[in-house]
Design a protein that fits this description.
Oligomer: single chain
Number of strands: 0
Strand content: under 5%
Distance between the termini: 40 Å
Helix content: over 70%
Shape: elongated
Largest sheet: none
Length: about 180
């Protein structure tokens, strides 16, 4: 195939009149419908707040049978709600248009550091809580509840790993875009 054949094939491509592939993207950006990394990370932290609220709602039925389990779980979820709200506020304060790249990068590093500490705190408190919850509910409701708790632990750990992966990749992408 020579250059004339390529030129004729290129000219024979039928493009509709008025077609501009960048026009739709430009409209979406102008309408603020294209989420930025900052917005995606902010929404992720708000979804974690919502997950903690669902966690509170799931332990409410057990308040009648085991008040200590309810109180400990309630405290855990309220603390995690507060921590995730602080993270969401920190992410929303990032303003790449008004701040220097250096100060924005410092904010991103601080968010990463806080997220690591939050994850350590969450794991150090959640694992004993889940063990306590599993054995307490199995003692109150029977061995089938133990199986249900184990399935819940596996599902919860899977969801937690997926959320952690998403947050890590968003923060890494945000940091790399600033470091360029």
């Amino acid at each position: 195939m020579d250059i004339d054949d390529l030129r004729s094939q290129w000219n024979s491509i039928d493009v509709p009149e008025g077609f501009d592939p960048g026009l739709e993207t430009e409209r979406r950006v102008a309408a603020s419908r294209v989420p930025t990394l900052r917005d995606s990370l902010h929404r992720l932290f708000l979804r974690m707040v919502a997950i903690c609220c669902v966690g509170i709602a799931t332990v409410i039925p057990f308040a009648h049978d085991h008040m200590t389990l309810f109180i400990v779980s309630l405290i855990f979820f309220i603390v995690m709600i507060c921590v995730n709200l602080v993270q969401a506020c920190a992410v929303s304060r990032i303003d790449m248009g008004r701040e220097t790249v250096h100060s924005t990068l410092r904010r991103v590093y601080a968010i990463e550091r806080r997220r690591i500490l939050t994850r350590i705190f969450g794991l150090m408190t959640a694992i004993p809580l889940v063990i306590y919850m599993t054995f307490t509910l199995a003692a109150v409701y029977g061995r089938f509840m133990m199986a249900g708790c184990m399935i819940g632990c596996v599902l919860g750990a899977t969801i937690g790993l997926l959320i952690n992966r998403r947050a890590t990749s968003l923060l890494r992408d945000l940091r790399s875009s600033l470091e360029e």
